[in-house]
Design brief:
alpha/beta; FAD/NAD(P)-binding domain; D-Amino Acid Oxidase, Chain A, domain 2; 2 domains; eight-stranded mixed beta sheet; four-stranded mixed beta sheet; 9 helices; globular
Length: 319
């Protein structure tokens, strides 16, 4: 979507082929958290992710200025204090809040945690709501969207003079056999007894888990990273996700479970994104768990190469 939008805004005639229908319920984006957190991701990612992520923040704000970016919050219980301090050392762009400041920022967390890390410049978008908005912007920019289209890159390339940008994720294994699927599992719950204004990450012994507020008193709980390509959610993951929510606020125990699901995120062995270039055909893939964070910046890089021959040596590979 971001690739199509960037090229359409630059004056190119763009056709976006999408194998799903307009609801986009079968793709990984349907199960994404939509977190735009380049500073937090620095704890377990290469500097490239932060660099591209910071640029993407600006592009998201430019494209959707009405979307609130209220930062993100990191908290931990006393037993995970060492991991919390390590997270603070490994990241930047945060402000330390004491219990009083934390309660002022998120009143529902009053007396729940003794302090927190506030990343004021980060944000989040709700994928299921923001994608239709981007579709509308693409159409207004002159782009054409063809849903339920299973056309292949080779078929597109046969059209004289066309530039093909392959963003098929795991379906691109015919051209990128080194790709693997990394499963992300999530739960959506509904409760009116908790109110959060921004994503809250809870430091966990195995991985940080996050709770993301959505409209209609709903919350997405996620952040599992499972090295398997099966579908569905394991009992263990569901228990950990729901226990994490309960650990943040006991009112989540009475919340209604709305949805449980998972998606497979495409990743290369180094978990870094890659733009592969072969004449008029480009492949953008391997965004791992950073799809919504990195997509705008990668689209900008692709456009820069096509329009001006610009090369980003950290991301691009030429045949």
């Amino acid at each position: 979507m971001w690739q199509a939008l960037a090229f359409a805004r630059a004056g190119y005639r763009v056709t976006l082929h999408e194998r799903d229908d307009g609801d986009l319920t079968t793709g990984t984006s349907h199960w994404a958290g939509g977190m735009l957190a380049p500073y937090c991701e620095a704890e377990a990612s290469e500097p490239l992710i932060t660099r591209l992520g910071l640029r993407s923040l600006a592009l998201w704000r430019e494209a959707l200025p009405e979307t609130p970016f209220k930062g993100s919050l990191v908290v931990a219980h006393s037993r995970d204090r060492n991991d919390y301090e390590r997270f603070a050392r490994m990241t930047s762009g945060h402000q330390r809040l004491d219990a009083q400041a934390l309660a002022k920022l998120e009143p529902s967390l009053d007396s729940r945690f003794r302090d927190g890390l506030f990343f004021a410049d980060e944000g989040h978008v709700e994928p299921r709501r923001v994608l239709p908005q981007l579709h509308d912007k693409l159409v207004r920019a002159g782009g054409d969207i063809r849903f339920r289209s299973s056309v292949t890159p080779d078929e597109c390339a046969r059209e004289s003079g066309s530039i093909v940008i392959d963003c098929r994720g795991l379906f691109a294994r015919d051209a990128l056999p080194q790709l693997r699927g990394v499963k992300g599992e999530m739960v959506i719950v509904e409760t009116s007894e908790v109110s959060l204004s921004r994503p809250v990450r809870l430091i966990h012994p195995r991985w940080p888990l996050y709770i993301i507020p959505r409209d209609d008193n709903q919350f997405m709980i996620g952040a599992t990273t499972v090295e398997r390509e099966d579908s569905g959610v394991s009992v263990r993951s569901a228990l950990e996700l729901l226990s994490a929510a309960y650990a943040v606020h006991p009112a989540f125990a009475e919340a209604r479970i709305v949805e449980i699901g998972s998606g497979l995120r495409p990743a290369f062995p180094d978990n870094l994104p890659r733009i592969s270039i072969d004449k008029q055909r480009l492949s953008v893939n391997g965004l791992y768990r950073h799809g919504f964070l990195l997509a705008p910046a990668l689209a900008e890089l692709t456009l820069g190469y096509v329009a001006r021959g610009e090369i980003d040596n950290e991301v691009m590979q030429c045949a």
